[in-house]
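Appendix B: complex inputs.
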Amino acid sequence: MAFNSLIFLIFFAIVLGLHSLPLQWHAKKTNLLLASYIFYAAWNPPFIVLLWISTLTDWFAARKIAVTSGGTKRFYLLLSIAVNLGLLGYFKYGGFLEANLATILGTMSVSYIPSGANIILPLGISFYTFQSMSYSIDVYRDRIKPHHSFLDFALYVTFFPQLVAGPILRAGFFLQQLVDENKQRVNQMGWGLAIITVGMFEKVVLADGALAPIVERVYGESAAAGGVDAWIGTMAFAGQIFFDFNGYSMIAVGLGKCLGFELPWNFLSPYGAVGFSDFWRRWHITLSTWLRDYLYISLSGNRAGAARTIVNLMLTMLIGGLWHGASWLFVLWGGVHGLLLVLERVARQLFDKSTLVRTAGMQFVLGIVTWLAVCLAWVLFRAEDPVSAAHLLTSMLTFSSGDELLGGIEVLTVVAVIASLLATHWFMRNRSFESVFKGLSWQVAGLILGAMLIAIVLSPGEERDFIYFEF
Amino acid sequence: MISGQDRVQWWPAWVLALALLLLAVGSWEALIRSAALGPEFADNRALWVSARHKLNGYGTDAIAVLGASRVQRAIHPETLARELGGQVAQLAVEGTSAIPLLEDLAVDPRFRGTILFSVAPAFSFNRTLSKLDAGDQAGWIAHYRSQSRSRRMEHNLRLAIQGLFAFRSPDAAVTRVLPDLLLRGKLPETDFKTTFADRSVSIDYSKFKRTANPQRIVDLYLENTEAYEADEFADLLNYVSAVVTILKAKNCRVIFLRLPSGDIVRDLERQMFPYERFWGYMQDNINAEFIHFEDYPALAGYLSVDGSHIASENSIAFTRVLAHVIQQ
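Resulting structure:
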């Protein structure tokens, strides 16, 4: 059940109706948990079992971690990590690992034919395993106490607005919201619906309607793409993936608000970033902070000298790349970002005292350089295979000629949408969406929301899944 | 980051937004209807998958129509259902081979009805097309099989809305209407093809003159078609025969049709795909029923100007005659 579907609209209206009834808070939470299971089962009912396995494992592991010490405590932590990563490893990387094993054995003249088992990737498994596992780790690190209510914990793992593609929640942040009912919920509804509308506009009109067909044209015929078309197609993808994923995340935040919950923002004007560390503080924030807190810092972060910091950064980004999908291109994409972060660290040390770097003009130039590098890296993320990626990158870097894949209207559409996106992100660099939107008069807010609703309803675009559903 | 004051008064803002929405969509709907641009359906995967799902509920009454554009344009489902006393699912897909669907119905235990398989020479006897993957049908079948229940409900809802509101019609897409309205100051004309909820289609050749010429069909044949060699055709028929045997074991009725063509199209088809070598060979090697237009003079006289398809205005009359032939 995707957020951009009519079925979800009906589903959410029913859930909201039930949630607004004068019931006990416990009953409301039970309703939300059941609704979350129905939401997940609508895609593929048997995979609910995986959610239960993850939930039960971390519920019991965390309780044991809290009352044991030494090796036993560590054993329960490893149990949580093994079960969650085991599920993720089998369902997401099983086929990939087997195919690579066959290749490696093949180079040693050992014949191994992969089983070819058609393993279906359960929706949201990359998100809920990370979320569930972080609870056990936080209890292990004494950051939180084990929660007293299994219902609350199950709802934390399963809460439908963020179940399939985040934002990835932290137990300490969300579980406390489940203790007592938020009496301000009704007042938040107007704002929650506004966030949902903006998110839906980004997904339906901009990502799916304006940009996706152009991206598909260029990346579907990458061998024929010349330099200009490759750049336009890649810029379109930079816009598409932002509007798609930010749209999804905003809808999740808005749904949460309508139900009385705060969910973290996942994006803060990432294309207004100056530098790559700034980019990762603004892009898919709940994943990048998860990787920082549970992987980078666990690897010793920047506490063990410069060389080890570089290794830790690269490892974190390579694993972060692999998290996105079972493909060497994702690993490479993560590796490129890791390398860019390392280069930025070196550059910062070299130019730390330079006043020129801090001038507005230089900040703008660095912002553009950051964005162009991020765009080049997106090619690895979107290309169908390494050959297509190599061809597109070559075309982009050499501005080679090719077939005319895109018409004037399509080029203009991309330029207009991307220029507006970059200008908005630059303007919003140090502002929050909330502070800007809530500062509008009701007339202006009404006009903006009305225009967005009209565009959503009249949008002729095809119905497409959210890109991050594949991860 | 600073969180701003909640200056917006949400209640009036939402009233304004919804009023704008109703006004804009209502006006657009009225404008679109004034030019008769809808409501109508898009002849796409969603509509096909919906028809395929419906077929599952028809039981032994099911009449599945398989093939390409010829049979999609020729058959009027409601008339066929009335004449033959069953429930019709129009599953033909323009420009494709229907062999993958024949296989799908054979392995589907719920299907126990009648199959009308239209043999379009360009797609059934053409060695340049893969026998199983030609065109969209294989992909559409895969989509039908993998569709979750919620996705199916979603598609049915969207189709219901498309049938109710003109602004959801393919002819009324903003990207099609707005440029005409802004640049030429008038609404665009309806497309030459209109698709209905039962997947029947109506073609207005006066709006698409390029297709009204039989020479175009002949040119397409000459550019894209190469008749199977005898051994290749024998292999294909072995496969089709095996599929038909599975269907017959489920008490299904399978009827192969060769729908009419005329003038230079018919002459070329006769020349490229000689009756005895193709149709005759099929009759000899497949345990099914066969209706070739050249064996039934009653089927003649309904063609459109393109010489390859039944004229839309004749589809009801042609369907009646065809049903009569089938009953005989």
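Chain B has one domain: 43-327.
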